[in-house]
Q: What sequence folds into this?
């Protein structure tokens, strides 16, 4: 059973398009996250939700909008995609903010 | 801003040798965590060490923490080809709590274990 799953695994799209990435965890965790990993492998947190409530919102363009319909799901919608959005996006979950996090397999987004 | 800095950036060793990776950080921490990332995969948690702990073991892994020097090291003993991966340290700051409890990752050490 996959603990943290993301779809799609690969996403290739044109500049200006809108796209969504979905994440689901079956670990019963209260906290979920979105990270962006750039081409140099630097991993930076974007958002965190705890029980469907936004608790961390880093300096991210407002073209990025997370949505948590329930505590097992955290989706990421990106409007007006730009070349610089190309990266691997990871979803993660944990019991709370201080505990180890469980990562999904990542979504490689390529903006052409 | 980036908190953890791993050293070296890349390390290549032979199977059976030990591998040591270091991490330095800037602010006081609640805990420090080490993760592994295989190529094209998500991160996997290895060990968490709290600020009041000095050493922790898990199988072939040994982590040390020196809060006075704001540094940690990860030692992998008797390395195997399957240990080839990027290794990241990540810190949880100790100040206030709430939304400040966010993991800040370093840039990672790419470990290559040659068979």
A:
């Amino acid at each position: 059973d996959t603990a943290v799953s993301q779809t799609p695994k690969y996403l290739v799209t044109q500049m200006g398009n809108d796209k969504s990435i979905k994440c689901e965890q079956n670990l019963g965790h209260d906290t979920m996250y979105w990270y962006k990993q750039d081409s140099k492998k630097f991993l930076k947190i974007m958002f965190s939700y705890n029980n469907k409530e936004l608790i961390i919102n880093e300096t991210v363009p407002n073209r990025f909008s997370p949505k948590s319909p329930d505590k097992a799901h955290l989706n990421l919608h990106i409007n007006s995609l730009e070349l610089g959005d190309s990266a691997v996006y990871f979803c993660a979950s944990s019991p709370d903010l201080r505990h180890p996090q469980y990562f999904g397999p990542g979504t490689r987004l390529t903006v052409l | 801003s980036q908190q953890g800095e791993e050293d070296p950036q890349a390390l290549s060793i032979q199977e059976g040798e030990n591998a040591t990776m270091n991490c330095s950080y800037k602010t006081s921490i609640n805990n420090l965590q080490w993760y592994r990332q295989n190529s094209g995969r998500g991160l996997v948690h290895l060990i968490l060490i709290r600020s009041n702990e000095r050493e922790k073991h898990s199988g072939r892994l040994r982590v040390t923490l020196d809060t006075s020097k704001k540094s940690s090291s990860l030692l992998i003993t008797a390395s195997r080809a399957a240990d080839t991966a990027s290794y990241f340290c990540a810190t949880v700051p100790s100040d206030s709590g709430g939304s400040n409890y966010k993991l800040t990752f370093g840039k990672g050490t790419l470990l290559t274990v040659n068979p």
Notes: Chain B is about 0% helix and 55% strand.
